[in-house]
Amino acid sequence: MDRIRIVGGQRLNGTIPISGAKNATLPLMIASLLTDQTLILDNVPRLADVGLLQRILGNHGVDVMTAGKRPGDDPNSGRTLHISAKHIVDTTAPYELVSKMRASFWVIAPLVARMGEAKVSMPGGCAIGTRPVDLLIMVLERLGTQIEIESGYVIARAKKGLRGGEIVFPKVTVGGTHTALMAASLASGTSVIENAAREPEITDVADCLNKMGAKISGAGTSRIVIEGVPKLNGARHSVLPDRIETGTYAMAVAMTGGDVLLQNARPELLQAALDVIAKTGATVSTTNEGIRITRNGGGIAPVEVTTAPFPGFPTDLQAQLMALMSRAKGTSRITETIFENRFMHVQELARLGARIHLDGETATIEGVEKLKGAPVMATDLRASVSLVIAALAAEGETMVNRVYHLDRGFERLEEKLSACGASIERLSA
Ligand code: EPZ
Asked: Could you report the per-residue pLDDT of 141-152, keeping only the tens digit for each?
């Protein structure tokens, strides 16, 4: 198993190109199941989760072709995928595949909308909380699907096709909103989603569906209206930049000090996080090329933050902020309201010398003068990268084990950081 070795203490200076967003790429690839024509996606990041979803889609009969590089292509631009779900050969998504990545459960919506049936394994528990799928099932039922749960599988049937309906979410759910968008696009009649998620990845998927011929309005607000159409077409769409990758590197610079341009990053995708980063003492500025983060001298100021659905502070940056706060000059408080168990990084940060006290959903972090390198291990993607951030500022060597978590969501992490002066290398087993 690969490990990452970091020797802390270097400031970060230079340019980091921001990749396409993982959490838009996954639902966009799944949306290809809605049409028998080819969906072309540009700016797709090279990530383990993308490869895994490719295998899952392949099991349904979907062909995914990766376009080769052309002369003059920007070396930092993502890949182009040509995805064709012309022939769906199997509407079952088995446990062995779905259990590896929760988002793959979302195939249930396009499969039942286009094929009238789907059998998808329940995704099961996960390291950051219980993460049920009751609201996704509610969406499908509201649109006329019969649901049965049998031996750990959700069996969805709508032999006569889906029909439009009103969906009122009792809580904001990203996956629930993606499910509703995809299913309602091919339903007969109009659907209305109330209390929809407003995350930029929802808007990106709605934009792509509209290019495919869907009639969606209001994406990006909490009320989305979808007029169903009988058929969707192929289209070409470029994945939006990854706001979580952007926020992660911004916090890394706020932690180590230095001056980095986050190329292609768009401030409106993470304004709440940038406001917090500015409060910690870093300078955040927007240029034509992206977002520039600078911190020269001065300490890290403590903050109080509560995670919330977009446009609030994202749960996917909570662990990284905690790493930054571990060296703040004073006491900070971070409250996690989205997932009940997303604090697995606390113990590992403590191994580096962080002082964090947990009380229910709130972590109190007493900033320390120094962190010290240690062997660490993490249980999920964002937790792992929070350890990388802490290690970049720690004295001595940190060995991050279980690097496969990082490979799920951060493209060329070691390369991007070492190009800015970090001492970081991957050790292959
Ligand atoms: C998406 O997960 C993201 N995943 C997550 O990113 C992200 O943390 C999360 O949204 C919140 O922003 C992808 O986009 C692939 P939710 P999702 O449905 O859709 C509860 C990462 O690190 N809920 O918005 O699964 C749920 O338990 C990942 O990249 C129900 O109760 O999240 C949670 O408390 C991790 N019933 C809340 O809603 C349901 O049926 C929000 O979850 C569905 C969700």
From this structure: 999 999 999 999
> What confidence tens digit (pLDDT) does each residue in 330-341 have?
999 999 999 988
Gap between the Cα atoms of 27 and 241, Å rounded? 15
Domain 22-238 has CATH 3.40.50.300: no
Query: Quick check: 232 and 35 in contact, CB under 8 A?
Result: yes
Cα 276 to Cα 264: distance, rounded to the nearest angstrom: 20
> Order of strands across the sheet with 12-17?
12-17, 258-263, 290-295, 283-287
State in Å: Cα 103 to ligand 1 middle. Answer: 9
Ligand 1: atom nearest CA of 314 is: 12
- pLDDT tens-digit map of 270-325: 999 999 999 999 999 999 999 999 999 889 999 999 999 999 999 999 999 999 99
The full set of domain ranges for the chain reads: 3-19+241-427, 22-238
Phi-psi region of 23 (alpha: psi -120 to 50; beta: other; left: phi over 0): alpha
- Binding-site residues, ligand 1, Cβ < 6 A: 23, 26, 102-103, 129, 131-136, 171, 173-176, 315-316, 338-339, 381-382, 409
Both structure tokens of 246: 């952007």
- Answer whether CATH 3.40.190.10 is correct for domain 3-19+241-427: no
